[in-house]
Amino acid sequence: MQRDIEIAELRRLTQYIDDNFDYDFKNYAMSSFTRRVRRVIELYKFTSVEALIKKFKNNPSFFQEFVSEITVNVTEMFRDPTFWSSLRDEIIPDVIKEHRKISIWHAGCSSGEEVISMCILLKELDCLESATIVATDIDQSIINKAKKASFSAKNMELNKQNYERYGGKNDFLSYFVEDEGFFYIKPELIERVSFRVQDLVKGNPFSKFDLILCRNVMIYFNQTLQNEVLKKLHGSLFKYGNLAIGSKESLIWCDIANKFVVVNNEEKIYKKIKD
Amino acid sequence: MNSSFFHNKYKGIVIGGSAGSFKPITKLLADLPKDFPIPIFLCLHRLKHVRHGFIEALSIKSSKPILEPLDKEIVRPGMVYLAPANYHLCIELGNTMSLSTEGLVNNSRPAIDLTFKSAAYVYKEKLIGILFSGANKDGALGMKAIKDKGGVTIIQDPEESMMNTMPLSAKQVTEIDFCLEAEKITNFLLDLYKAYQK
Fold it and tell me: Domain range for residue B175?
């Protein structure tokens, strides 16, 4: 498809999806969402947005494939190593000291790299046993991948470098079992993690947490939706619970920004101070 | 030079570059007046895992403050924005910027093509795209998008560029309005500045 996708076409698409599949993409950020839709159209050689909608009509099960393609699943273990060291040195020890346990939600966990980073971090702090971890994503197939927790040797190189920059003291690869070029996380490390499918947009708060990681997820939403989702994250935090967003995200523009204080501005870690 | 380019209706300038572009771009930023009014978006290939240092290096001689925007930050006149390490930078309708961690494009994140295309979509004929030295093809299709929407396309003269693949690739896929040495690119923007003073 050579020409630009028009806003009216996108509206027809998101409306059709909302009416038929109960997913709401209407407030996704325009430029990245358009790019993702175009990508699907080119990948499956559709001629237009209309042709994509027609495919949904003829074959509703195609929708799950669409969700997998539309969501961005680029992630790394220990991405932004200094963020992870501040969790290790400040945030998590404080929670453990206060409550002797910690509940953590990875909202938008993708293929689980950050979940694994967290488990390794907790293991090294000797408090993995004190943690309850929930990891959610909108996409069933990526949740399956996260549960499988296998990584290609090529990706492991970067993960290992990040771990070393984070100041990890162990042999990083000792947390994995290698099999035919793939590295599998040792099952005991992630056995406490509950992986679930959950849509941040349509889903409701389901529990309360001491720490929520929602990094580089809300960047795919427009400001209206960022506001709505932030309210849900706020509602899912205990008072004085911590929220971590991506290093280039901000709460400044959100309606309920005043219910949080900045704990670490460089790493974008906030603390809920008001209900 | 055709005087029809010198008006005061521009909404943005996007600048892309890779290997060999750092020097001419720092020079350009040093030579621009502090109150140069058009927002500038820099998308330069940079080390993925080095979050600090680059903006400081760029800022040393710059007459204007340079910012790495946060997601959904509002575009303000006269500012210089630099695509952060490991994020794509896009311009959104409604005068904001957005960041994205989508996969590498042309082996790059930030990718010049994404910044240029999104800016072309939003600013149309009120956009100037400038592509400096670089050793890959990133930015070429972005320049085409700018031209297709009626914007102005400028490349650093490939003769002068330390690496000419980037400007030459743009020239192969679209019409280039001006092929200039780095110093002349600065002069072009200074002439434009005068148009804004009137």
Answer: 11-197
Residue-wise pLDDT for B144-166, tens only, equals 999 999 999 999 999 999 999 99
How far, in Å, are A240, A252, A261, B7 from residue A265 at the CA level?
17, 11, 10, 41
**Are both A44 and A122 inside the same structural domain?**
no
Burial degree of B15 (CB within 10 A; 0-12, 13-18, 19+): buried
| Angle, alpha carbons B104-B97-B138 (nearest 5°) | 35
How many angstroms away from the CA of A248 is the closest CA of chain B? Answer: 5
- ipTM exceeds 0.85: yes
Q: Which residue spans within chain A are E strands per DSSP? A: 102-107, 131-137, 150-152, 176-179, 182-185, 193-197, 209-214, 237-245, 260-264, 269-272
Number of domains in chain B: 1
Q: What is the pLDDT of residue B3?
A: 66
B18 is catalytic: yes
State which residues form the domain around A56.
7-70
Give the whole-angstrom CA distance, residue B106 versus residue A122: 37
Asked if the structure places residue B4 within a domain, the reply is no
Asked if B70's CB is within 8 angstroms of A248's CB, the reply is yes
Chain A positions touching chain B (beta carbons under 8 Å): 4, 29-32, 35-36, 72, 74-75, 80, 161-162, 165, 216, 218-220, 222-223, 226, 246-250, 252-253
pLDDT digits (tens, 9 = 90+) for B34-81: 999 999 999 999 877 677 778 888 888 898 999 999 999 999 999 999
